[in-house]
């Protein structure tokens, strides 16, 4: 299956079931938690490679790992996670205003309310991969866009802010506000997002210290141009 293919409903359930299974570490992310995490990575201030963020799907310290049946199953689950991430990336690239965070719903006194807390926990964990890099938006004129994420996702908030998240109706409104703010948060980072570090590709093989110098002098490289270049 190509990585640019969005998850089908069956595949979504497959990944969901695996994350909730006994073979996944106890602290593994749930689907809404994972979706928030991937969103922060996708729209944040700098690219983060999968080999850094993937291990934290299984726990906050990145040291736990699932008990896969075999290499084929591991490949399958990782593929589903990468496609889940690509859905986020593609949506923000082509239609950011249509992005829908994966919030859970619950019934409270006959009302269907959204619960965005786990999604925000994930977003917060995504930000903590590059904590200093997010300072620019917090300190900007649009810093208030981040307030719902802070209230619902931060490890600690002020005591006088607790009623905003403990009341299900107020927490529901924060979730709605957050969803409305995400396109603007993405827009803030687009011109500021750092490019991936380029890898230098040599046109010719590297000359070893004890090889003949390519200039044709007949001397060892370390005694000729290597000395001029400060080779050790």
UniProtKB/TrEMBL annotation:
Residues 205-232 are annotated as: Disordered. It comes from the Bacteria. Gene3D superfamilies: 3.10.450.50, YgfB uncharacterised protein family UPF0149, PF03695. This is UPF0149 family protein.
């Amino acid at each position: 299956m190509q990585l640019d293919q969005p998850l089908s409903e069956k595949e979504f359930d497959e990944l969901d079931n695996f994350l909730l299974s006994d073979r996944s570490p106890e602290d593994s992310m749930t689907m809404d938690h994972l979706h928030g995490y991937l969103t922060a990575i996708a729209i944040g201030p700098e690219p983060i490679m999968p080999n850094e963020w993937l291990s934290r799907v299984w726990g906050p310290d990145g040291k736990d790992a699932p008990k896969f049946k075999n290499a084929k199953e591991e490949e399958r689950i990782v593929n589903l996670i990468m496609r889940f991430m690509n859905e986020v990336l593609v949506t923000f690239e082509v239609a950011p205003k249509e992005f829908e965070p994966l919030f859970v719903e619950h019934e409270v006194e006959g009302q269907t309310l959204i619960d965005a807390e786990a999604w925000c926990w994930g977003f917060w964990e995504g930000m903590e991969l590059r904590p200093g890099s997010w300072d620019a938006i917090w300190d900007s004129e649009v810093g208030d866009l981040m307030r719902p994420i802070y209230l619902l996702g931060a490890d600690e908030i002020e005591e006088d802010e607790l009623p905003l998240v403990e009341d299900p109706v107020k927490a529901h409104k924060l979730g709605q506000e957050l969803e409305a703010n995400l396109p603007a948060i993405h827009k803030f980072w687009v011109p500021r997002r750092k490019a991936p570090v380029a890898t230098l590709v040599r046109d010719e093989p590297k000359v070893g210290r004890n090889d003949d110098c390519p200039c044709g002098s007949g001397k060892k490289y370390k005694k000729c141009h290597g000395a001029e270049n400060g080779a050790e």
